[in-house]
């Protein structure tokens, strides 16, 4: 191989490494806000850092609520985390503290709203990034 050929091959290899580094470099996971309907209740879930770990979830719920339970399940892998009962933070605002997402991937968070007229569920999908991609 000539000197020019080696130089060209080296530049191509360097370009490939640069592109792979750019594509695979850890990036901060963007905050997640998902919403849905649990019977007459509109439920909105917010997660600031959707990465592997233990998190506090903020939930906004319309209508009268006696109790709110959050249950994360990773259906594709057959995993689930312990359900967490949310506590009221303000009128219509709840906090579920210590919700665990122990591996990256899609989690379906079932929010059960217990109200004076019974219980209703909504399943909210959340994509969890690998650890190290937090902002």
Description:
The protein contains 1 helix and 10 strands. It has one helix spanning 3-24; strands spanning 32-38, 41-47, 53-61, 67-74, 79-80, 84-85, 87-90, 93-101, 105-115, 118-128. Strand 7 and strand 8 form a beta hairpin. The longest helix is centred in the N-terminal third of the chain and has 22 residues, at 3-24. It is elongated, with a radius of gyration of 22 Å. 21% of the residues are buried. It comes from Pseudonocardia zijingensis.
CATH architecture: Sandwich
Give the SSE order as H and E letters.
Answer: HEEEEEEEEEE
With helices defined by DSSP (H or I, 4 residues minimum), what is the helix count?
1
First-last Cα distance: 46 Å
Mean pLDDT over the full residue set: 87
Secondary-structure-based class equals alpha+beta
Beta-strand content bin: over 45%
CATH topology type: Immunoglobulin-like
Strand order of the largest sheet: 1-2-3-8-7
Total beta-strand segments = 10
- Shape verdict: elongated
Helix share, percent: 10-25%
Low-confidence stretches: none
Give the quaternary arrangement of the chains: single chain
State Rg.
22 Å
Q: Give the CATH level 1 class.
A: Mainly Beta
Protein name: YtkA-like domain-containing protein
């Amino acid at each position: 191989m000539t000197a020019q050929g080696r130089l060209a091959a080296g530049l191509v290899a360097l370009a490939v490494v640069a592109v792979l580094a750019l594509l695979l470099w850890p990036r901060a996971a963007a905050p997640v806000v998902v919403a849905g309907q649990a019977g007459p209740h509109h439920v909105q879930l917010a997660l600031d850092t959707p990465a592997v770990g233990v998190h506090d979830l903020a939930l906004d719920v319309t209508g009268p609520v006696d109790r709110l339970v959050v249950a994360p399940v990773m259906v594709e892998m057959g995993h689930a985390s312990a359900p967490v009962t949310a506590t009221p933070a303000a009128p219509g605002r709840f906090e579920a503290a210590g919700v665990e997402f122990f591996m990256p991937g899609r989690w379906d968070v079932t929010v059960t709203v217990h109200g004076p007229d019974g219980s209703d569920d909504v399943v909210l999908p959340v994509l969890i990034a690998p650890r190290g991609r937090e902002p």
